[in-house]
Automatic annotation (TrEMBL):
This is MFS transporter, FHS family, L-fucose permease. SUPFAM superfamilies: MFS general substrate transporter. Its main location: membrane. It is a multi-pass membrane protein. Pfam families: MFS_1 (PF07690). It comes from Pedobacter westerhofensis.
Length: 407
């Protein structure tokens, strides 16, 4: 009689919970960036397509930092990789001080780029570490569990941003002072967490977990080159399109609420936070459903649902379309962690390097928002036709995974 594998081991619980907190922290940073997108339009008087360069700066950092972070982790271990990520995160946050003082859009982009280099490093390290905290058969569930906290951070980001940055009538609603003060606070918190992390003990066994998996391959069998693994190569492509859809959807959510629903920026920001609550709910539900439904099948089903949601959103039907916009995040919920874990299946000693390339796929979130912005400059609703391309690619990845999955 087959025994279901454990979610994780008791000895790994503290490490898993610590990783969950870090997932929360970079979720907060990403969605807060989308609030800044709208604020820069108002204060620095940039167009929608140019304000989307915020997303290019943040997600572009993933393309730059993905491989270096993987190499750093491989040489110095998980713990030092996490420390590097937190240091860069804090450094980028503190650079908001001179950026706000000079009111320079390009300086803000530099600060966000350095901050996002920290996020990319954290993601590169955290995903394979969480995957190693137990049986590989339950790695999808552990990563989705950790990503639920990422969604919680995504809820907190718009709430903080809407209250401190977008709220009309407050003293600094039309300047950059509140932005500066907020990021000073964030940088301080991240720096202190980095100090606390020095006391976390990660068992040496985990550093060799993936190598051990690779060592169990039959003697004489040639290890394929990294991109010869079809499931991994398709995962990199799927992740690029996945984050492209995410970046575009989030970048113009507040604009959609303002222009289609005629909300204030602050109220639209609170609805953005609600959509992130729905994403947390989707990840929680998805983690449970994956106990009974194969992850790749659930991924394909959710991708089809989002194609339908985008079609409805693009019509600009008022509340019907706005509710569909909220539900995009529910169905989007499992996509990032599931694509990540499916791509890392049975990669053995190449797992850490593979993680770096999948993280690099996140650059899609920087490329797509400016493209959507060109349409959004004329019609914000019509811009939501573009993510349908992304969800089609994700559907194909999930639908064909059974044929290309590793043995």
């Amino acid at each position: 009689m087959d025994v279901k594998p454990k979610f994780t081991e008791r000895k790994y619980l503290l490490i898993l919970l610590t990783m969950a907190i870090l997932f929360l922290l970079w979720g907060l940073a990403l969605t807060l960036g989308d609030v800044l997108n709208k604020h820069f339009q108002n204060v620095l008087h940039v167009s929608k397509s140019r304000s989307a360069l915020v997303q290019l700066s943040m997600f572009g950092a993933y393309a730059v930092m993905g491989i270096p972070a993987g190499l750093f982790m491989r040489k110095f271990g998980y713990k030092n990789g996490l420390m590097l990520g937190l240091f860069l995160y804090a450094a980028g946050a503190f650079l908001f001080i001179p950026a706000a003082n000079t009111a320079s859009f390009n300086f803000f982009r530099l600060a966000l780029f350095i901050l996002a280099c920290g996020l990319a490093t954290l993601e590169t390290v955290a995903h394979p570490l969480v995957a190693a905290l137990g049986d590989q058969r339950t790695s999808d569930q552990r990563i989705n569990f950790a990503q639920a906290f990422n969604g919680l951070g995504g809820v907190i980001g718009p709430l903080i941003g809407s209250y401190f940055i977008l709220k009309a009538g407050q003293e600094h609603s039309s300047d950059l002072v509140s932005v500066k003060h907020l990021y000073i606070g964030i940088g301080t918190v991240i720096f202190l967490i980095g100090i606390a992390l020095t006391f976390l003990k990660i068992p040496p066994l985990l550093h060799n977990a993936h190598a051990a998996t690779g060592a169990s391959m039959p003697e004489g069998k040639t290890v394929k080159k990294l991109f010869a693994h079809k499931h991994f190569a398709f995962a990199v492509v799927a992740q690029l399109f996945n984050v492209a859809a995410q970046g575009g959807t989030w970048a113009y959510f507040v604009n959609y609420g303002h222009e289609i629903m005629h909300f204030s920026d602050e109220k639209a920001g609170y609805f953005f936070s609600l959509s992130m609550v729905m994403m947390v709910g989707g990840r929680t539900a998805g983690t449970l459903i994956m106990r009974y439904v194969a992850p790749h099948k659930l991924l394909a089903g959710f991708a089809l649902c989002n194609i339908l949601m985008c079609l409805i959103v693009a019509q600009g039907f008022g509340w019907i379309s706005f509710i569909a916009l909220l539900f995009i995040n529910f169905f989007f919920s499992i996509m990032f962690p599931t694509i990540f874990s499916l791509g890392l299946k049975n990669m053995g000693s190449q797992t850490q390097q593979a993680s770096s390339f999948i993280v690099m796929g996140v650059v899609g979130g920087g490329i797509f928002p400016p493209l959507m912005g060109l349409i959004a400059n004329h019609n914000i609703a019509s811009a939501y036709y573009l993510p349908i391309i992304c969800y089609t690619v994700i559907f194909l990845f999930g639908y064909t995974y059974e044929k290309i999955k590793p043995l």
